[in-house]
Amino acid sequence: MPDRTPYVAANWKMHKTVAEAAEFVDALLPRIAATQSDVAICPPFTALSAVVERRYGTAVKVAAQNMHEEASGAFTGEVSAAMLAELDVEAVVLGHSERRQLFGETDEALARKVPAALAAGLEPILCVGETEEARDGGQTEAVLERQLQAGLAGVEGGKLGDVVIAYEPIWAIGTGRTATPEQAQEVCAYIRDLLRERGAAADAVRILYGGSVKPDNATELMGQPDIDGALVGGASLDVGDFAAIVKAAG
Predict the structure, then answer these.
(1) Which residue segments constitute the domains of the chain, with CATH numbers given?
(2) Given this model, what pLDDT does residue 201 score?
(3) CA 152 to chain centroid
(4) How far is CA 177 from the centre of its chain?
(5) In the chain, is it the N or the C terminus that has fewer CB atoms within a 10 Å radius of its CB?
(6) Of 90, 105, 130, 168, which residue is the catalytic one?
(7) What's the pLDDT at 1?
């Protein structure tokens, strides 16, 4: 099994002005200078350039929180992969549960977005996860299989290792509930098994856990064999908390 570099991403959602983002990055970089993990910051669109500028010369990546699948067109309010790449953004979060639930993001759209991101040189962070109703109904595996098959439908086997998967149980996002490390590992191992059906590159794919990750549970969660890091929401808004989670990753 190949070594997989730990990966910790800060999803700020609709938080932080340009000034706040700049202040955060300036405070964060010295605290994580010794990390051997990959670190990504996912600010709102308005703060992308400010974060990109401040992370030059460091190992920190910058990721957008969404993008449109088309290269251009009459899509008011959207941005394309090329627009992100022009800003020196390196990655993009796709299919976050809030995009799916609140804004109607479909599996069909993601089937087009993931290959569009790869074609533009962006690293897709593809989010998958089940609702509480699906979990209680024994549908977790069916939901994840559907989401993964759709999201990866247009990805060639040789490109699979360029995709990051983030498992975010919807019932554990912003609720204070967290999947136990054993529950998270069980699902991430299932995701790995699904990826293996697509080829040997599955063992190179990094699978992140997202769902109320905090400094006090990060070490145990990221210590599981099939969990390679974290997609951090609320705790990523605090410099000290996020730095502690990065430290926990290694």
Answers:
(1) 7-249 (3.20.20.70)
(2) 86
(3) 15
(4) 19
(5) N
(6) 168
(7) 44
In the beta sheet, which residues pair with residue 208? 166, 229
pLDDT in tens, 208-237: 999 889 999 999 999 999 999 999 999 999
Side chain identity, residue 214: K
For residue 57, CA distances in Å to 29, 82, 245, 247 come to 11, 22, 22, 20
Q: For residue 166, what is the enclosing H or E element?
A: strand 164-167
How many residues comprise the chain?
250
Instruction: Please answer whether residues 156 and 124 qualify as being in contact, where contact means their C-beta atoms are separated by less than 8 angstroms.
Output: no
Say whether 133 is catalytic.
Answer: no
Active site residue 168: yes
Of the candidates 68, 69, 90, 96, the residue annotated as catalytic is: 96
pLDDT in tens, 61-98: 999 999 999 999 999 999 999 999 999 999 999 999 99
Rounded CA separation 43/119 (Å): 22
Of the candidates 129, 107, 135, 98, which has an alpha carbon nearest to the alpha carbon of residue 233? Answer: 98
Please state the pTM of the whole predicted model. Answer: 0.96
pLDDT given at position 175 = 67
Calpha distance 54→58 (Å, rounded): 9
Helix axes of 48-55 and 18-31: crossing angle, nearest 10 degrees: 30
Torsion angle defined by CA atoms of residues 164, 143, 81 and 125, in that order, rounded to the nearest 10 degrees: -20
Contact (CB, 8 A) for 148 and 114: no
Write down the mean pLDDT value for the chain: 95
